[in-house]
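Support request, please re-run this one:
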Amino acid sequence: MGMRRQGLASTAGFTFIEMMIVFVVLGIMTTMMVRAVRGSWYAASRRSATRDVTAYLFRARAIAIQQSRAAWVVRSGDVLKILVDSSGTPVQLGTPLDFWQRYSAHLGASPRDTIPFDPRGFAPYPTVAPRIIVQYAGRTDTVCVTGLGKITGKSC
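Re-run finished. Output below.
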């Protein structure tokens, strides 16, 4: 008659190799998930920064129309600010918005760092539509202003 070893045959469980395989698979799945979440977080942050640029442009245009004064959106490094004409002197209105501090995003501008709005809300650029470029995590978004003052992020 066969003798049974007591202890090993009656114990149920997983071997060390099986546990290692499970942990390796979980590690690979977690890595893929973290990359996907991080990418969507970067995109959401870039879109938020682009929305803030658009809001600043709309605000400057609305101030120009409502107060019948010239207004400017000025980019200084990664900071946007709104200036309004007060008897021939530009005066800052509100607080400047630092995109590096808030979003870790860089701002660029083309063709100049200042986007003017006349008292009618028009952007007097005869040839090239001014644009502000938001750069974050290797990707860029662009916000443009047409000559009639239309602010758009598409077809710039």
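Residues 16-67 form the longest helix (52 residues). Strands lie at 71-76, 79-86, 89-98, 106-110, 114-117, 131-136, 139-145, 151-152.
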